[in-house]
Amino acid sequence: MGLLCLGTPLTWDETSKYADHVREHGITQFLHILDRAKDRHGDDFLWGDEIEYMVIAFDDETKNAKLSLRQTKILASLNKSITDLKADASDPMLTPDFHAEYARYMLESTPGSPYTGSIQDLLSVESNMHYRRLFIRRHLNTNQVPVTVTSFPRLGAPGIFTEPHFSPDGAKPSHSLFLPDEVISPHERYITLTTNIRSRKGHQVSVNLPIFNDDETPRPFVDPTIPWQRSLHPVDNGVALKDHIYMGGILFGAGCCCLQLTFQSCNIEEARCMYDALIPMAPIMLALTAASPIWRGYLSDVDCRWSVLSGCFDDRTAEEMGRAPLRENKYVIPKSRYDSVGLYISTDWNNKAAYNDINVPYNQEIYTRLVNQGVDKLLSKHMAYIFIRDPLVILSETIDQDDEASNYHFENLQSTNWQTVRFKPPPLQSPIGWRVELRSMEVQLTDFENAAFAVFIALLSRAILAFNLNFYIPISKVDENMSRAQKRDAVRQGKFFFRKNVLPPGCISPTMTTPSSSGSSSPLGWQDGNPPKEAKLRNGFPRVPPPPMPVDTPVEDEYEEMSMEEIFSGKGATFPGLLGLVEAYLDTLDINPSERLQISKYVDLVRRRANGSLLTTASWMREFVRSHPSYKFDSVVSQEINYDLMVAIDEMYVFLLEELSAFLTVRLQREGRLACSRAFTPRLRAIASEWTA
Ligand code: ADP
Ligand code: MG
Ligand code: MG
Ligand code: MG
Ligand code: MG
Ligand code: MG
């Protein structure tokens, strides 16, 4: 979750005094970055995933699955192990990175170094994820397991749900009625962020999610479990809506897990194209990965986490939300700082001005300054929009920076604008280039699924570049898709705005294998009409310039509502579907049949999620709850149901472990030991003893 430097955080009053200072120097730092990196060209396609976990502690006697708050100890132990391993492991993939996350029950892992564009690397993603999970597992107590659940079903429900247990009475930084502050990671940055978001806003951040109306759910539903007697902070009063699950406190959002992917581009232009192309993909992938139907012990009528995050990180004041006339604040800001993207930024001619059709307030002074420094208008507006926000955490030791050598103030705002897609400039003093991060996906229960979505998006990103695909639809339609994506069962029941023709003008559908006879350039933009035969995922540039745009089609005619199946499997003569595009891209690579078979397992998962023949994680969880013998069809997800759900999720992992790659087996044999975790059921113990024999 961004910068984690040590230091002394300023109070909110002090922080706001330095807001202009941070913005001014942040932009100076950005200009220095741009100056150094704008002509940077030729970076390879490198990419990586981030996976977030919750550590669950099972109490088999009382049938309780609790959140374990041992993050600090676990991380210390993980990092010691990594340091030891680094001393003798030459393969960086054997030494993944583990990071803290906002809640003390959370961990994040990333691969030890980014994946390259080789097919071998593509096919190692799943075992890499397995390896990281098992690595964590080996550092936990015997009753604990890491699970990749997007939202913990009973977070904030009454009763003991953390180990050790802390009372939410008197929660200070978070002012939450439901959650003890001890759940927040002890790092000062997180505590300060919590206090300052609330202070800036002027009251508690909160969210009301519609309750899932089951057969026996009381109507109207007035939540009897809200601990009003704990009303330390009267602001909670009156904000809990009936027929909703009320959640107050940033942790309800910040305590969710997700799957993020970062892709390096060969230069800034390619990164801007990739950023724009992934913007319309963000809601589509959110719907497809939906995995969070249960909140604070209730089934909700949504399947995704995003609106909770949006609400919990919304530091806008009443004035900024347009609910009071502007006095103290300068702008009415339509979106939370955790929200979908505000504007497209590519200078490609495909990016018509009409697509940026929502109100994006921006800092005029910063905009003018950037434009005067020669930065084009779109990028200037993007930064001036990011910089409309205030810094939330400032450490006293970091106020004065050498703007040529530091990107600290820039990152302060950059990394606290949590949009669905992030445009990441090259960090200073690092070999890393221009990157784009897709941040909307929900984490899946198994690494097979996480790998499938990672591999699919990696391939799609290459297809976008190779075929010069155009995914543009107006941003207002992307926003509409964001809200549709989160509805219950959106994948099967929802329709989404999508572009009718994503291929460059004059191009035949890539699912057709014969090259177009018309026109001088090849159908897919390859100079000699032959795709490059290379078993490697490549950057797209230099691209063959696309033919000039035909006489304008009105923007409203460029897109239509499609089902998820149509978006993925195609519609009509012109749209081959995202899977058709990925398959066409795969056809251009020199992959052997067994590699292709392995990739097709992942592509098939995506296909089957999209056509509804496989349940999303959210639907699976909902059905699990509704078919549990003790469920009363009243939307309540009890401690026992939650326990059984977590056990089922853990058993899924144990089952998949049987299929672990040889890579892992060798690795564990060399270590000479396996942790004895609760999940080492007789079946797993048998596998484990085989390995270590
Ligand atoms: P953040 O939390 O800021 O989004 P992380 O450092 O947690 O970022 O994760 C960054 C991801 O980017 C990791 O998966 C990492 O492997 C990947 N990565 C690292 N270097 C590069 C690079 N040069 N190009 C693309 N991806 C990279
Ligand atoms: Mg994270
Ligand atoms: Mg990260
Ligand atoms: Mg980070
Ligand atoms: Mg690393
Ligand atoms: Mg990230």
Query: Outline, from the CA principal axes?
Result: globular
What is the radius of gyration?
25 Å
Strand content: 5-15%
Overall pLDDT: 88
Straight-line N-to-C gap = 41 Å
Let me know the largest β-sheet: 9 strands, mixed
Bound molecules: adenosine-5'-diphosphate, magnesium ion
- List the uncertain runs: 512-529, 661-693
Name the helicity range: 25-40%
Structural class based on helices, strands and sheet pairing: alpha+beta
- The total count of strands amounts to 17
The number of distinct helices, counting runs of at least 4 residues, comes to: 22
Describe the structure in your own words.
There is one protein chain. The chain has 693 residues and is α+β, with helices and mostly antiparallel strands. The chain has 22 helices and 17 strands. Strands 1, 2, 3, 4, 5, 6, 9, 14 and 15 form a 9-stranded mixed beta sheet that branches. Strands 7-8 form a two-stranded antiparallel ribbon. Helix 8 (268-288) packs parallel to helix 14 (475-485). The radius of gyration is 25 Å and the shape is globular. The chain starts with 11 loop residues before the first helix and ends with a helix. Residues 512-529 and 661-693 have low confidence and may be disordered. One magnesium ion binds at residues 50, 260, 437. One magnesium ion is lined by residues 50, 260, 437.
